[in-house]
Amino acid sequence: MTATSWLAFREFNGLLVYYTDLMSYRCAIREVRVGIDSAVPDQVLKMPPCDPKDPSVIPRDAMPYLKLAPQTRSVSVELTYCDGSVSEIRSFRR
């Protein structure tokens, strides 16, 4: 349902891609893989552990973004959910 909000690009002291939405739903996600300028998600994003008492809160010390090279044009994403199912790959363009 939130696939269109998984990532958001922002230019602030360079190019950033935020994955705040995914971090808010991390209790339902086992793994997030991304591909920078690639259709194949080949890097695992680090996510803080799930807090079952407050599952949607992003910890204060978490960094819900990646710094990207200024010439980056797209990022692909694939999620593996806690039940083992895998999302389709989504691509986000700047």
Written account of the structure:
This protein is mainly β and 94 residues long. It has one domain. It is 5% helix and 36% strand. The two termini are 21 Å apart.
How would you summarize what this structure contains?
With 94 residues, the chain is mostly beta strands. 5% of the residues lie in helices and 36% in strands.
SSE blueprint:
Layout: E1 8-11, E2 15-18, H1 20-24, E3 29-36, E4 43-44, E5 65-68, E6 74-81, E7 90-93
Antiparallel strand pairs: 1-2, 2-5, 3-4, 3-6, 6-7
Which class do the helix and strand fractions yield?
mainly beta
Q: Low-confidence segments, ≥5 residues, pLDDT <50?
A: none
Described by strand count, sense and barrel closure, the largest sheet is: 4 strands, antiparallel
Q: What gyration radius follows from the Cα positions, in whole Å?
A: 13 Å
Keywords:
94 residues; mainly beta; four-stranded antiparallel beta sheet; three-stranded antiparallel beta sheet; 1 helix; 7 strands; 36% strand; globular
